[in-house]
UniProtKB/TrEMBL annotation, chains A, B:
NCBIfam families per the UniProt record, alphabetical: npdG
SUPFAM superfamilies registered for this protein in UniProt: NAD(P)-binding Rossmann-fold domains (SSF51735)
Keywords: Oxidoreductase
UniProt-recorded name of the protein: NADPH-dependent F420 reductase
Higher taxonomy: Bacteria, Pseudomonadati, Pseudomonadota, Gammaproteobacteria, Oceanospirillales
Gene designation: npdG
Organism: Marinomonas foliarum
Signal sequence, start to end: none
Cell membrane found in the keyword field: no
Xref: Gene3D superfamilies: NAD(P)-binding Rossmann-like Domain
Pfam family, one: F420_oxidored
Domain of life: Bacteria
Keyword Metal-binding: no
Amino acid sequence: MNNDVSNKVAIIGGTGPQGKGLALRLALAGVSVVLGSRDPAKAAETAQQLIATLAEQDCKADITGLSMEDATKAADDLVILSVPYSGHDATLTALAPLLVGKTLVDIVVPLAPGNPKAVVMPAAGSVTESAQLLLGDDIPVVGALHNVSAVTLNDLSRGINCDILVCGNDLDAKKRVMALIEKMGTQAYNAGLAESARCVEALTPILIRLNISKDVPFSHAGVRICPPDH
Amino acid sequence: MNNDVSNKVAIIGGTGPQGKGLALRLALAGVSVVLGSRDPAKAAETAQQLIATLAEQDCKADITGLSMEDATKAADDLVILSVPYSGHDATLTALAPLLVGKTLVDIVVPLAPGNPKAVVMPAAGSVTESAQLLLGDDIPVVGALHNVSAVTLNDLSRGINCDILVCGNDLDAKKRVMALIEKMGTQAYNAGLAESARCVEALTPILIRLNISKDVPFSHAGVRICPPDH
């Protein structure tokens, strides 16, 4: 491990399963990660655990842990938001002034309280659209990484069995996020404007339903875009 | 060809590309099809063309063409609705009395007028939910087959590169539709209640966007549910 990677991404809510899995995958891809948590000591401890997990890998990137605010400040550009939906708007409101000049990558899915097989979409249409409204047009919001299983992200013996549908109103910002995702070895697709998040976010509870179903012979399902059969 | 197949499905709007492709695939799977059109002569002519297309195949099912009303009456159970969204509600209102005791399979996607890369969802949330509201709870509505390319369906040299996400509030009806779909050689998944159609219908313009994009190296994209990588 060393610290000489200029490319540094923040993951806010980085001590949860999704955040930890993304941190591992990004670090393995050579991208340094700063975990942000309400509890900076927990963020630092989680970062040490993740570094230990990667001890036997040829990993050239670093993982550190800070407060949400300091992690946001430390990001070069991309700040990934990975908090439970219940804390989404309050977290963003607090971080908004620090996000000026950066890009928010919103991966939050508005699962129905007590029912992960359903969503309750916010009034704006989707979480991605809510975030864009809340932050204003000067801070680009990109919706991405909603459908990939946290278990898969954390199981480094497996590839990522899920293409990533990326949406948002700023094409350049989407391209930067797609480039980051493709470093993790999976395919990213431009799924259109922020309103496409109404579909993409709502795919997650459908996958969760399939994972729970006794009629489907596997769990941790992903979704892939397929070319025509030959 | 012969007429001794008891299992008979109607396709309303069956002279369009999606309807014709489904008719071919179903007939090849041994399911007889009645195309329904506002113009019964056109329906009969289309049926003859499809039979000619299948002339060299070992096809044991029949394809016929009738008015929308007579095709609905002729169906044993499943009536597939495949009309442009602009005609969806009026068609269903006209056919509603004939659908008592049958199951509606709604495959209509509410593409935005003039922009196939977007949807304008109806007030009920989705077309499937609109149809269920319109028909009342005694006639089950199943949403399905929204994402499969008409070009793919009509190209019998190819398999169907798209899993089918099936949604609706009546589990038995969904199971009958899933069994029909699997006869065509593709996988059907129970994607949950009718409200899941908000996601599934909105996937179609995302696929259309990818088909049009110069950045995606193929057209006629499908979507598949993937087990974990090994």
